[in-house]
Automatic annotation (TrEMBL):
Classification via InterPro entries: AIG2-like_dom, GGCT-like, GGCT-like_sf
Record-linked Pfam families: GGACT
Gamma-glutamylcyclotransferase AIG2-like domain boundaries: 4-103
Source taxonomy: Bacteria, Pseudomonadati, Bacteroidota, Flavobacteriia, Flavobacteriales
Organism name: Flavobacterium cupriresistens
The protein, known as: Gamma-glutamylcyclotransferase family protein
Length: 105
C-alpha cells in the first residue's frame, strides 16, 4: 500500500469515483515548507485554473490536505489522471507520514 497526499482535486468524491471507482478514506495532514501556485492547464474545452505545490523558502508556509492510503494499482490510476504539468515525488508530511505528492514538473 502507498500513501498519497492530496491538496486538490483528488479530495473530491466525484473525482475519486471517476479515477478509482470508489471513495477513499483519508486523514487531514499538512505539508510544510511548500506553498500553492496558480497553474493553467489546457483541457478539452480550453484553459482551466488549478493549483500546484511548489517548494517555499519560508519553512512556516504549509499546504493543508488529506493523506490517503491507496494500492499500487490506484497510484497508477492517479498518475494517469494527473496532467503532465505535475510530477510525483515523495515527501514527509507534518505528521511524519511519508507520502507521494504531485508537484510542479
Amino acid at each position: 500500500m502507498e500513501q498519497i497526499f492530496s491538496y486538490g482535486t483528488l479530495r473530491s468524491k466525484e473525482i475519486q469515483m471517476q479515477v478509482f471507482n470508489k471513495l477513499l478514506t483519508g486523514k487531514a495532514d499538512q505539508l510544510t515548507a511548500y506553498k500553492l501556485k496558480d497553474l493553467k492547464i489546457e483541457e478539452e474545452f480550453g484553459m482551466t485554473d488549478y493549483f500546484v505545490a511548489v517548494p517555499s523558502e519560508n519553512p512556516a508556509d504549509c499546504i493543508k490536505g488529506t493523506v490517503f492510503t491507496i494500492s499500487n494499482e490506484d497510484l497508477t490510476k492517479a498518475d494517469q489522471f494527473e496532467s503532465n504539468a505535475y510530477k510525483r515525488v515523495r515527501i514527509t508530511l507534518k505528521s511524519g507520514t511519508i507520502a507521494w505528492i504531485y508537484i510542479e514538473s
